[in-house]
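Quick look at the format.
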Amino acid sequence: MTRRHRTALLCSIGAVLVPGLAAVVSCCRSAPHPAPNRWGGPLVPAPLVSRGRTVASRPPGGEVVVDGVYRTSASWAGGHPTPAQPSWVAIKLGRCCSRILVSWTSSGNHDYRDLFYGAPVDYRIEVSSDSRDGEGGTWKTAVSVVDNPVRTRAHAVDFEGMRWVRMVVARLPERVNEWGLFLDEIDVHDLSDGGNDVWMFFGDSITSEVFDRGPNHRPAFADAIAERHRGYYPATIGAGTGSFHHPDAVRTLDAALAVNPDVHVVALCFGSNDWDSAAFRRDLENVASRVRASGRIAIVPRVPFRSDAKTDFAAGLAQAVDAVNASLSLLPGPDLYTWFRAHPERLADGLHPDDAGSLEMIRLWTEAAAPLYGP
């Protein structure tokens, strides 16, 4: 019996024994999952449960990983861990969930496969039911990672009967900054009711910058969804890479999905570095089809207008996106071409949005994603 079914049963019994109790406990009852719409929504919520929780760490300072602040100097500095003397940060969740998604971020790195500025290479995720302080007690390894290749990723973990979750880092890349490990945030989402509101923004340098969740780009996509759709707070993986072209998407998609198997929605955000609309359409259709074949939702925006090009290649690329969306019956992403063509002043260098343009892009994404969410 799932937690949702247990809660529904207890609420039903309480309503019979105590008249009026159903109204009191309705806030704790998970509503039945509605039938899917044509786009694959509504998604099942995966609420964020780690923000502001009690944290312990070695070395100290780990409380910043639950403060909701990304991409600043206020990151946890974990030093130079080794297998003999690992660094660790533990979060006390209590008996909140039967299954969780642990999503960590090392945002000092720009590209998805950059590790130099503090990303771990060997680490494990542990859980404990009896620890009192995040260090002692009995710990069980739920996930073990060797040779991690990326700056952020997420892991689903069974948490039935547990109270603490801990990330233990044993090794950094051979080429690393002089200060060592830096983690700016560890988000934990509740998957107990089958939550699948987990996104990957897969694309180019614009993707990397706009979806970095830095202070100048807040409200971020997850914040904006939470404000518009009660009960939701999506987990997001920013998988952007500079100088990214459509053949790179074909080549790297499977690896990106392999390190994040719990991602359910893949935003395919590339094209701004491309010019051949026919080749772009071929590769975009290839990638979007593979996303769908894996049981996930693909969503593709119209490629943004760029003001620094003598030829408006983005117009043909936007038409290619329309053709792929129609051919595969995909939920259309935001029309970034039309918006930035009307607002070229929001392009800092003719290609990348400035901070105000980034916030507009996030707004447009939030509006386009609405059919994937409940009312």
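Next, a different chain entirely:
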Amino acid sequence: MIEYDRWNKIRSVLTALSRSWTRPDNGLWEIRGEPRDFLHSRLMCWVAYDRAIKIAQLRSLPAPLEEWRQTRDKIYECIHTEFWNEDLKSFVQSKHSRDLDASVLLMPQLDFISPADTRWVRTLESIGKRLVQDASVMRYDTETGVDGLPGNEGTFTPCSFWYVEALTLSGEIDRARVLFETMLGYANHLGLYAEELGLSGEHLGNFPQALTHLALVQTALALNDALEGKPGIRARAA
């Protein structure tokens, strides 16, 4: 059970969020460029309301459920109308942009969108074409200048595992397995990863990085369940 004081804190957080979810920010990647309206930020705001609503209903806790539902649904509509690029046939990094971002790979994992949804299938294809290098995935295109920093960077290892899980959820099990096994080959002799991989497979950035290993474990579990045909695995519709 959630204690009275903790639930009150959750409600106060959502009250504050109702006033701030539309504000530009620096996003998941903490960009040095100008603040923007990032899809990932909106997505996590949607998650906050969606999960709070479910908790309140499950535990019969007091909450302004109708108000929360309205805000959650506004965020949902916002993402579909302002972060979908019809020309690219893809969800994009920030409002009305043409840039892709690997953080959108979390959308089906967080149950925002079905992995069989046509918009999601198209988005996954776009990411595969523009951000994937072999089995590794860039978090975004650094040449756009969105991060306000010069030069390029390596591929971002958590995103590589997110991509494998996204393929798994969308029913591309064989391809997911191949890419997962390829990524396992980039671990060091202790099975550890840094946050990035360089052009020659060298480890770059923070080492070892918890986010990378969390993504690895979650992806391994999802892929294993899919390979064993366990109930609950969401596959692409025929």
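Residues 1-82 form one domain.

See the schema section for token definitions.
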